[in-house]
């Protein structure tokens, strides 16, 4: 009987703990002392380990920004590499607090599938990569081709839609992860490899013969990529959303990693900047954060333009042009709501 | 819990209920059952609550929705309007196909290798031993990856396809051969084939009975062969061609038309067969060794040859030992086919936990469906093998 009672007590305790574990994500994160961030396992420029095994990329920097906002220390992040098919279950089950993994914001995901998208890190579109030796210069000429892709992405749906609306026949081979799909493309199993255009550029530079492959001009879909959180935790959603916007806002006002201290010290700075950096007002409090939250992000991670440049833009091996990802003031789509 | 204890059977009077072993047994069972049900109910509620809070629609309604993605191998037809339910069915068939091929091949190879291990020929026995040790000591995922990569590497690109008379093509996209197209004469043809087999079996039974009754033999084999070849041949002559063949032809990128065995299927089936065969070989060896040496010695002393002894004396007895562990290997093979997800073979796990789960985010339902299929098929295999085992079991008189 003693054993049995112990079991019963154990079960009751277990039930109690699980029920009690449902405070807000922000409180949970503060308590455990780091942000658990779901990222892509290996996508150059977005999230990939460098030669020392440290994750680098624009999606990774979003995680750092959130950590900087909460803890004042951008390094308080732990990364979980997730394949496309694992990512949503990982977020839903609470394995990660935040999914910053080149994930497309779609209506179904935002509404009925239990997630909230908080913004756009990178405006993208799906493209196709082919070998030059194929002699094809347009996606419209791919009738009868075999296409490799990663399973469980919007890519699979767009591909089906595009080929059907253009009345083209094709065969799709869907792999469990990107690396396998790329390997199959390289070996000749497929004529084309498809994913978001940014991913294609990242893939191309890693091919054995980058010059032998071209990205076709057609962009067959809209792919706004951004961080996602679990539905129903608005406070946590706000923290991630405004961490992202703080970086965009900082770029708009010319606040950079290098000059943020100088600007903060200036007495006659723009009031918008003063509010952003927490010199005036109490914007941080509303988020449940320290007032220096945005300052910490900019100081430790940088503004949006800086993380774009160093990871995927001109200052990186990918060399992707700003394009749609330029600020709204430069003719692009990146736009932060007012900080007031 | 039974009354095997040395205590007197009659219950001593005055025992307090909480000291009575019988009462304790019943009460503890009830409490345990309640606990299990309670925890199960709690977990179910917890999942429901969490999904509701996160605004995730639950239920199996998504199966009726249009799936709008494509799949590389489909045994039944589908089009852009096909539902998730049909995709599920396609995935189930793909899993069953590769498992069936794997089970047949693994059994064949396993029996041959298992018997070879016991061969008196030193070389044959050693080769079989090396095969078993190499195969079963390497993880299955490596086998699969090895075969997939080596198959792909070895085959020519589409442009340089190996072709036999423009009928068979071999390249990195697989083996393509003419596909059968059923014609109107197909049904009578199939009826003729079935009739021929039924008649052949009837002749054999009748001949056996006559042999037993009168001692006169009847050329049953030749009659049966004549029936099996003759009847369909006659139908073919009168009703016409039962199938016509759709010839593959070179398209811009791929070989178009015909039937293609994709390299993912080939690699997965080869890896599963070779890997499982090494375990089956060991089971067969153990089974044969379990049959007393006296059995084959007795057979040999009657002048029965080695091969016949093996076939009629040793293996039937060995099967009693072989079948139960063989069942486990079949079940393992079925479940291991889920590793095909790694090389892009669209089996149950790849489709349900991969694409369907991510497109609908119905993780609980998608995985529950996949689990239900594995459970059902496993139970069916198990039931079939148990039935076979019961037939082969020692008949005690």
Q: Which features would summarize this protein structure in a list?
A:
heterodimer; A: 340 residues; alpha/beta; D-Maltodextrin-Binding Protein, domain 2; five-stranded mixed β-sheet; 14 helices; 41% helix; globular; disordered N terminus; B: 397 residues; alpha+beta; MetI-like fold; four-stranded antiparallel β-sheet; two-stranded antiparallel sheet; 11 helices; 8 strands; transport (chain B); MetI-like (chain B); AA_ABC_transptr_permease_3TM (chain B); amino-acid transport (chain B); Amino acid ABC transporter permease (chain B)
Overview of the structural elements:
- The complex is a heterodimer of chains A (340) and B (397).
- In chain A, helix 3 crosses helix 9 and helix 9 (234-252) packs across helix 13.
- The radius of gyration of chain A is 22 Å and the shape is globular.
- Chain A has helices at residues 2-20, 25-32, 58-71, 84-92, 107-111, 154-165, 178-187, 197-204, 234-252, 260-265, 271-277, 283-287, 293-300, 304-311; strands at residues 35-39, 48-49, 55-56, 77-81, 98-99, 115-117, 122-124, 126-131, 145-150, 170-175, 192-196, 213-215, 223-225, 228-230.
- Chain A has 14 helices and 14 strands.
- Chain A has a five-stranded mixed beta sheet with strand order 10-9-11-8-12, with helices on both faces.
- In chain A, strand 9, helix 6 (154-165) and strand 10 (170-175) form a beta-alpha-beta unit.
- Chain B has 397 residues and is α+β, with helices and mostly antiparallel strands.
- Chain B has eleven helices and eight strands.
- Chain B has helices spanning 21-53, 84-117, 122-136, 140-154, 186-214, 220-239, 263-290, 293-301, 306-336, 348-360, 363-392; strands at residues 162-164, 168-171, 174-177, 179-182, 243-246, 249-250, 255-256, 259-261.
- In chain B, helix 2 crosses helix 7, helix 4 (140-154) packs across helix 7 (263-290) and helix 8 (293-301) packs antiparallel against helix 9 (306-336).
- At the A-B interface, helix 1, helix 4, helix 5, strand 9 and helix 6 of A face helix 1, helix 4 and helix 10 of B.
């Amino acid at each position: 009987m003693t054993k049995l009672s112990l079991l019963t007590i154990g079960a009751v305790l277990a039930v109690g703990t699980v029920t009690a574990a449902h405070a807000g994500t922000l409180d949970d994160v503060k308590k455990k002392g780091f942000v658990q961030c779901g990222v892509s396992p290996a996508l150059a420029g977005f999230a990939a380990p460098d030669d020392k095994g440290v994750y680098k990329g624009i999606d990774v920097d979003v995680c750092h920004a959130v950590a900087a906002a909460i803890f004042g220390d951008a390094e308080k992040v732990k990364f979980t590499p997730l394949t496309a098919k694992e990512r949503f279950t990982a977020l839903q089950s609470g394995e990660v607090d935040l999914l910053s993994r080149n994930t497309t914001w779609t209506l179904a995901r935002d509404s009925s599938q239990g997630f909230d998208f908080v913004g756009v890190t990178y405006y993208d579109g799906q493209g196709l990569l082919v070998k030059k030796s194929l002699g094809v210069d347009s996606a419209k000429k791919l009738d009868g081709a075999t296409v490799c892709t990663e399973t469980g992405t919007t890519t699979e749906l767009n591909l089906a839609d595009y080929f059907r609306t253009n009345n083209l026949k094709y065969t799709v081979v869907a792999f469990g992860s990107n690396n396998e799909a790329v390997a199959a493309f390289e070996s000749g199993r497929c004529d084309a490899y498809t994913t978001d255009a940014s991913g294609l550029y990242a893939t191309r530079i890693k091919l054995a013969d980058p010059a032998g492959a071209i990205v076709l001009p057609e962009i067959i879909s809209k792919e706004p990529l951004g961080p996602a959180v679990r539905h129903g935790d608005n406070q946590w959603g706000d923290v991630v959303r405004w961490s992202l916007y703080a970086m965009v806002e900082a770029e708009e006002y010319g606040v950079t990693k290098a000059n943020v201290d100088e600007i903060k010290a200036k007495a006659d700075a723009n009031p918008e900047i003063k509010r952003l950096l927490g010199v005036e007002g109490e914007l941080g409090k509303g988020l449940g954060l320290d007032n220096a939250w945005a300052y910490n992000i900019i100081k430790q991670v940088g503004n949006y333009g800086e993380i774009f440049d160093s990871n995927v833009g001109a200052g990186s091996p990918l060399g992707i042009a700003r394009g749609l990802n330029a600020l709204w003031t430069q003719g692009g789509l990146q736009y932060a709501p007012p900080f007031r | 819990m039974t009354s095997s204890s040395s205590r007197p059977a009659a219950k001593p009077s005055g025992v307090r209920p909480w000291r009575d072993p019988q009462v304790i047994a019943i009460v503890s069972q009830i409490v345990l059952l309640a606990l299990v049900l309670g925890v199960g109910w709690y977990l179910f509620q917890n999942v429901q609550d969490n999904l509701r809070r996160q605004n995730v629609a639950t239920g199996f309604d998504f199966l009726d929705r249009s799936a709008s993605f494509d799949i590389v191998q489909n045994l039944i037809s589908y089009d852009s309007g096909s539902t998730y339910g049909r995709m599920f069915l396609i995935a189930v068939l793909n899993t069953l196909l590769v498992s069936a091929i794997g089970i047949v091949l693994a059994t064949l190879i396993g029996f041959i290798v298992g018997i070879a291990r016991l061969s008196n020929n030193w070389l044959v026995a050693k080769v079989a031993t090396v095969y078993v040790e190499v195969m079963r000591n390497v993880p299955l995922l490596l086998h699969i990856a090895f075969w997939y990569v080596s198959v792909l590497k070895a085959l020519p690109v589409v442009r340089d396809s190996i072709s036999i008379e423009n009928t068979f093509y071999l390249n990195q996209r697989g083996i393509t051969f003419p596909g059968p197209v059923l014609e109107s004469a197909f049904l009578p043809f199939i009826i003729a084939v079935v009739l021929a087999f039924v008649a052949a079996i009837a002749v054999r039974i009748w001949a056996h009975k006559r042999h037993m009754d009168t001692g006169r033999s009847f050329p049953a084999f030749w009659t049966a062969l004549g029936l099996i070849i003759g009847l369909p041949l006659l139908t073919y002559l009168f009703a016409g061609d039962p199938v016509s063949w759709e010839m593959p032809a070179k398209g811009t990128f791929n070989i178009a038309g015909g039937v293609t065995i994709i390299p993912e299927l080939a690699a997965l089936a080869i890896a599963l067969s070779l890997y499982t065969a090494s375990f089956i070989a060991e089971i067969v060896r153990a089974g044969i060794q379990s049959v007393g040496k006296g059995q084959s010695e007795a057979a040999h002393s009657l002048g029965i040859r080695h091969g016949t002894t093996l076939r009629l004396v040793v293996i039937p007895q060995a099967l009693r030992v072989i079948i139960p562990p063989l069942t486990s290997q079949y079940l393992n093979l079925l479940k291991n086919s889920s590793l095909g997800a790694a090389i892009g073979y669209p089996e149950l796990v790849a489709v349900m936990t991969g694409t369907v789960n991510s497109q609908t985010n119905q993780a609980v339902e998608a995985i529950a469906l996949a689990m239900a299929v594995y459970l059902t098929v496993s139970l069916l295999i198990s039931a079939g093998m148990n039935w076979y085992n019961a037939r082969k079991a020692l008949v005690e008189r």
